Each structure stands twice: as C-alpha cells, then as structure tokens.
C-alpha cells in the first residue's frame, strides 16, 4: 500500500467525527439538581440515532428521558439509564417505534461517550 493510501486509511480511522448538534440533560439526585450534561451528536455518522436521542432528550414527542431513573451503575465504567417505558432496563422504545437498526459502528467509544444499548435483536431503543 502506498503512502497516500496509508494516510487516507489512517485519517478514516483516527479522525474525530463532527458534532452537528448539542443537546442537554439536567440531572437530579433525590430531587436535588446535580448538574447539566451537554451531549454532542455526530449527525453525519448516525443521523437517525441522533434524531432519536435529541427527541428523547427534549421530550418534544410527548415522551422521553425526563424523569427516567438510573437503573445500573458500573463503577468506573458506565451509568445506564434511559428506559423510558419500564425504568429498569427491561424496556425502552425509540421515537421511530419499538426500535430501529444500527447505522454505524465507525465511531469509536471513549471515556465520556454516550452510547445507545442494543436490544436482543441488535436494534436500538431509548437506553
């Protein structure tokens, strides 16, 4: 492989996705404000996933993340929440219906990333 092809391959692997939209979520602990989290969405890489997340975060379709409890904490690793139907990790829905297909696996996950959980069929829901 020539230098140019190697450079293009490296660029495709290591480039950072472009944040196309930012949404925020205000958190509470036992009813007391705990702070705001601002999430940057990569709309070019995963437009449907971003539309779903933004709609759930804003609650503009009449349902969403508002009031959802945290249902799992993996200390030092992750916090799981967003089950808008059952609240315990067994439910979840998207703004497109029960679920929708994964758009990309190209975006690397790292500390501080927000990810959506795959269900039993490998599709996305609200969590």
Low-confidence stretches: none
Tell me the helix content. Answer: 10-25%
Content of β-strand: 25-35%
- Compute the number of strand runs: 6
- Tell me the CATH architecture: Beta Barrel
Mean pLDDT level = 87
In CATH's first tier, which class applies?
Answer: Mainly Beta
Number of domains: 1
What's the CATH topology name? Cyclophilin
Question: What count of helical segments does DSSP give?
Answer: 2
CATH superfamily: Cyclophilin-like
**What gyration radius follows from the Cα positions, in whole Å?**
16 Å
Label the structural class: alpha+beta
GO molecular function, one term: cyclosporin A binding
InterPro entries: Cyclophilin-like_dom_sf, Cyclophilin-type_PPIase_dom
Protein name: PPIase cyclophilin-type domain-containing protein
Family: Belongs to the cyclophilin-type PPIase family.
